[in-house]
Design goal:
The protein is of the alpha/beta class and 405 residues long. The protein folds into four domains: 165 residues, Molybdenum Cofactor Biosythetic Enzyme, Chain A; 44 residues, Molybdopterin biosynthesis moea protein, domain 2 (Alpha-Beta Complex), CATH 3.90.105; 87 residues, Molybdopterin biosynthesis moeA protein, domain 3 (Beta Complex); 69 residues, Beta-clip (Beta Barrel), CATH 2.40.340.10. Helices cover 18% and strands 30% of the residues. The strands form seven sheets. Strands 1-19-21-22-18-14-17 form a seven-stranded mixed β-sheet, sandwiched between helices. It has a six-stranded mixed β-sheet with strand order 8-5-7-6-10-9. It is elongated.
């Protein structure tokens, strides 16, 4: 049994777990933002697909440079972007060609409008001006060539990729199906937001709503189920029902050693226990059960513990479901207060506020950081594994970095 293991051991077990990627589905371009690409997006044609003017000017053959300087070049016609007629320049001739227009046949040089003057329908090069072949010409395939990979499979589509897809005339694309997540919370002391209780011996549920928001930010189809009472049978039935419609079931609460902590016992009957209990703070009592390509991630009941353990483990399970090798993004920061009172057994993820100073993150560790204090979790977490003094560089995880793959 992989119990009471280190963080790295837990991450290794997730990496080697049998987590099959989800199926693909076709979506319209507008619905692809934040989705994970199933296939490479390849260029249907080169960009530019023909030599194109990058400035407003006059297209001619460079061999006519001397004539341009002395006798002038006759203007044959106007060539605008999208011109359906094929243009061709001959000796001693030029064609006024606008930005984005196809370069006329035989032309290899552009004299931009500021470089010339016009007299008797001829252009002449201004004094002290220089022209050069291809200087203001976008060559065919200069951006990318037909068949090039524009967006590789496994990439998470962002709004800036939409322009690439549109330019490539990609209307529909294959992406991984969104993971379906069910979030269950148990505990007789838990009340749902908006619920009215006859006594004040309760706390409003926050874990399920926080986890819902996090999983939605990660692109999941998430649902919050009714709060479950402290009953083995109710917990078992709720998990069974949730697994039928979900890829992952997340539970919070019932994972400690109290007389009414039943979740830790019930989940073992659903599949293979990959690990239970990890030496981290907060979030020690976390278990991962693999249920024949469905998954149960059982989290602690304290708000900070549930959030931290999901961000460390649940996010990586989801990434494998989307066929990605996501890692925990670690950065460096200078701490503004000393790291003291280290836990000799557990690796601590301490909430901290951060700011950028001269291009370097500065992190201030929150002193009072008990695991029930959800309001202490804001900017980042400092990974506290050794004594450090004010001004030292330490490892941190910026929370926003954990809301993407």
């Amino acid at each position: 049994m992989n119990s009471n293991i280190t963080l790295n051991e837990a991450l290794h077990l997730i990496s080697n777990a049998n987590i099959k990627p989800l199926q693909k589905e076709k979506v319209f371009i507008h619905n692809s933002v934040n989705r994970i690409l199933y296939d490479d997006i390849k260029a249907i044609e080169s960009s530019p697909k023909f030599d194109t003017s990058s400035m407003d000017g006059y297209a001619f053959c460079y061999s006519d440079l001397e004539r341009l300087q002395n006798a002038g070049l006759e203007i044959l016609s106007i060539n605008k972007a999208g011109n359906e007629n094929e243009c061709e320049v001959g000796k001693g001739k030029c064609i006024k060609t606008f930005t984005g227009a196809k370069i006329p046949k035989n032309a290899d040089t552009i004299a931009i409008v500021e470089q010339v003057y016009i007299k008797n329908n001829r252009i002449f090069l201004n004094e002290n001006e220089e022209v050069a072949p291809y200087r203001f010409i976008r060559k065919i395939g200069e951006n990318y060539k037909k068949g090039d990979v524009l967006l590789p499979k496994g990439m998470q589509i962002n709004p800036f990729h939409i322009g690439i897809l549109a330019q490539n005339n990609t209307i529909f694309l294959q992406v991984y199906r969104k993971p379906r997540i069910s979030i269950l919370t148990s505990g007789d002391e838990i009340a749902e937001i908006g619920e009215i209780k006859e006594n004040d011996n309760f706390i409003y549920s926050s874990n399920n709503h926080t986890l819902y928001a996090i999983t939605k930010a990660l692109g999941c189809e998430s649902s919050i189920h009714n709060i479950i009472q402290d009953s083995k049978l109710e917990i078992k039935n709720a998990i069974e029902s949730a697994l039928e419609s979900s890829d992952m079931v997340i539970t919070t609460g019932g994972m400690s050693k109290g007389d009414f902590d039943f979740t830790k016992e019930v989940i073992k009957d659903f599949g293979e226990t990959i690990f239970e209990s990890v030496k981290i703070k907060p979030g020690k009592v976390v278990s991962y059960i693999n249920c024949k390509n469905k998954h149960i991630l059982a989290l602690p009941g304290n708000p900070n513990s549930s959030v931290v353990s999901f961000l460390l483990f649940g996010r990586l399970i989801l990434s494998k479901m989307l066929n990605k090798d996501a890692a925990i993004p670690i950065q460096k920061a200078k701490i503004t207060n000393d790291i003291r009172n280290l836990d000799s057994i557990r690796l601590e993820f301490a909430p901290a506020s951060i700011k950028l100073v001269d291009g370097i993150h500065e992190a201030t560790i929150i002193e009072n950081r008990q695991s029930y204090m959800i309001n202490r979790l804001n900017d980042a977490m400092v990974i506290m594994d050794k004594k450090a003094n004010k001004g030292d560089l330490v490892d941190i995880i910026i929370l926003n970095d954990l809301l993407k793959f």
